[in-house]
Amino acid sequence: MKYILVTGGVISGVGKGVIASSFGTILKHCGIHVTSIKIDPYINIDAGTFSPYEHGEVYVLEDGGEVDLDLGNYERFLDVTLHRDNNITTGKIYQHVISKERHGDYLGKTVQVVPHITDAIQEWVEKIAQNPVTEDGEQPEVCIIELGGTIGDIEGMPFVEAFRQFQFRVKKENFCCAHVSLIPQPRSTGEPKTKPTQSSVRELRGLGLSPDLILCRSEAPIGPSIKEKISNFCHVAPEQVITIHDLSSIYRVPLVMESQGVIEFLNCRLQLNIGPRSRYFMRKWTDLADRIEHLRKEVNIALVGKYTRLEDAYTSVSKALQHACIEAGYKLNLKFIESINLEENTKIKNPPLYHEAWHHLCKSDGVVVPGGFGKRGFEGKIEACRWCRLNDKPFLGICLGLQAAVVEFARNVIGLENANSTETDPATAHPVVIDMPEHNQGQMGGTMRLGKRPTRFITTNSVMKQLYGNKDHIEERHRHRYEVNPIYIKDLEVAGLKFIGHDDEKLRMEIAELEGHSYYVATQFHPEYLSRPLKPSPPFLGLILASVGRLKQFLASGCRLSPKQLSDNDSDTENICEDMKNLQTVDGSSRSGSTTSGGTNE
Fold it and tell me: Which sequence positions are flagged as catalytic?
C-alpha cells in the first residue's frame, strides 16, 4: 500500500480537499485503484450533530455515516463508495482507545497519547486503506489521507506525531507528504509573499514531517522566480513545487497538477510502475473542463434554504445542479434565498429584504427547496412550494422540501387549516408530517434514518420513473427522522399529489409528483449525494430540463440528449471539443492537460 498524506498550512479552507481528490483523479486515470481517508481533529464522534454553519453540509455515506463534506468531493471526483470509517475524528480515536482500556486491553499500562493514541491512528489508517471502494471489489493500491485543519493546531498534534512514526512504519518508498499552502498577494505590494509558506513548512519539518511536494495556492498565477524562492527556502527541488491559482472550475485542478509533472514525481517517489500514457490520457476529464468553460446560455435556479449565509451548507446540492446543467448544456446561475425572508413576518419587519427575496424567486427558471431541521424558515419554504405549484414553476423538494410541499398542499388544496409537521408544531390538529419513533430515540447523533435505502416505483405513469430509466427499484441515500403521515395519503392523492415511490420496509412515502404540473417533484431521500460530474442525478437533470423547457422532448426521446435537444451553445462546445481532439503537436503527440493558466493547449 502506498500513502499520500495531504496537509495544509497558513489558513484553513485552502483547498486540501479538492487537491487530495485531484491526486486520486490523476492516479485513477493511470489505472491505479485509489481510496481516501479524511481526518478531522475535532472531538465530535462524527459530523452529524454539526450546524451547517460550523463546517458546511453534513455528507451522508452509503452505510449511513455522517461525515465531512470533503468525502463528498472524494466520491464525486473518484466515483467511489466510501464508508463511515474513512472519516477519522479525534472523538472516534479516543472512544476506541477508551473502550479498549475499559475492556482491559491495556491492563497494567498507563494509557497515553504516545504510544496508545498514535498507535490507534496508524492501525486505523492501515486497516481502512485495505477496504475496497469500487464496484469491482479490487483492493486499493494508493490511499490518499487528508489531515484537516492547519499545521500547528493543537488538535492536530497527535495525528502529526502519528504520521511522523507512520512514515518509518511503512517505509520511505511507500509514503509521500504533500503540503498545501497559501501564497498571499497583498494589494498594497502587488507581489506574492512566500514567507507564510516558509514558516508553515518549517513548522511541519520541526514536527518530523518533510514535505515531498509543496502545492502553492494563489489568486493569480505564480511565476518561476517564486517557485525558485520556495524551492530554496523549503528544501525541495523546483519541480516539487506545484502552483495552483484560482481556476475557472475545480475540474481544472487535476489537469493543472498533471501538467506540472505530478505523475512523473509520484511514479518515481512511490515506485508505482505507471507505464506510458496514451494521447487520450484524461480525455473525458479534459472535455468536461472544456465544456464547462464554453457554456453560454444560462438557467436561473433559486435555492430556498435555511442556511444560505454559508454556501458550503448546500455543497452537494450545488454540485448536483451543476452536473445537471453541464449535461444539459447550460451554465448554472444559482441564487441562494433565505427562506425566512419569504415569510410575512419579514414583510412587516424588513420590507426591502422581503421584496428582494420574492423578486429573486419570481425571476428564477426553477426552484430547489433542500433539506434542513427545525422550525425557523419552514413557513418560507412552504410559501416557495405554494408559489411554484400555482405558477407552474419547475420545483424540486428534497427531504424537508418534500415535507413542506405536503404541508402546503394539505393546507391550500385539501383545506386542512393549520396542517403542519410535528417537528414544527407538536400540537397541530392535522399532523400531515410525523416523527418516526424508531429514528428519534432521544439522542441526536446517528439516530436518524440514514444511508442507502431502496425505493419502489408503484406506477408506470411517472416522470421520475422515466428519469431513472424506468427501473422498478432505485437506491438513494437518506437523512431524516420525520415522514409523511400515512393517514393523509389517500386524501392527498385524490387531490392530485401522487406518491409514486414507496419504501418497501414500512411503506414510507419516498417520491411525490403533482399531476398536471410541468415538473413538481419532491423526494424524501437526498439524490444530490449520488450525483457525479459525468453522471448527473436524475431528479436534478429533470429540474434543469424542465426549467429550460426541454423535459418533454427529453422524455419523448427515451431520455436521450440528442444534439437537437442541446442548447445552441452546447452544440458549439461539442464542435470545439471535437476540433481539440483532432489537434496534435508537430511530433504527433497529444497535448492533453498541458495547462497552467486555466485554459488548454489542446
Answer: 399, 526, 528
